[in-house]
């Protein structure tokens, strides 16, 4: 809405390393390294002023055009995703056979996250990680999916442990506690 390219929307496909670097307890440290962000998290090489096609790995479905044939061949939007990653999966399926491009001569206004704006959005983290697990399961196989599950659960327990210790000293984050408790609860419901 500020007229700038939403770079964070042109992500790299998720990997175990991406989770460790940018979605775990270590994220604050690694967000200081532009090289790692560009290599593992988002495509920072897109030139929004080039007025030509810029190629990328994935495109968010906030504004996504493709042929009906390619959409059908990709399996449409997979309904197993509650929220998040259905567009990542669509891009991944199409990208197996086609190049994905951003037409920088065209612009739209996208109010990122406006469909779920809430004053207490702790549940988003849980939905995001659970959707990432579905993506891994569908596209990367059992071993990597198992690794992600283990890392995600351990990560949340580590954060909960330290936030509860900080809480004793009046410095714990209720938001982080709710966020990671929700993920653990939803994970147990889904994978028990």
Number of strands: 2
How would a textbook summarize the main sheet? 2 strands, antiparallel
SS-derived structural category: mainly alpha
Rg calculated over all Cα atoms:
18 Å
What fraction, in percent, of the residue positions are helical?
A: 40-55%
SSE pattern, N- to C-terminal: HHHEHHEHHH
What is the approximate shape? globular
Low-pLDDT runs of 5+ residues are: none
- The proportion of residues in beta strands is under 5%
Number of helical elements? 8
Order the strands across the largest sheet as they lie in space.
1-2
The average pLDDT is: 91
What's the N-to-C terminus distance?
42 Å
Model description:
The structure is a single chain. The protein is mainly alpha-helical and 192 residues long. It contains eight helices and two strands. It has helices at 16-22, 27-30, 34-41, 68-73, 86-95, 123-139, 142-168, 174-191; strands at 53-56, 100-103. The protein has a two-stranded antiparallel sheet. The protein is globular and about 55 Å long. The mean pLDDT is 91.
Tell me briefly what this model is.
This protein has 192 residues and is mainly alpha-helical.
Task: Note the main attributes of this structure.
single chain, about 190 residues, mainly alpha, two-stranded antiparallel sheet, about 50% helix, globular
Topology:
Blueprint: H1 16-22, H2 27-30, H3 34-41, E1 53-56, H4 68-73, H5 86-95, E2 100-103, H6 123-139, H7 142-168, H8 174-191
Antiparallel strand pairs: 1-2
Helix pairs in contact: 1-3, 6-7, 6-8, 7-8
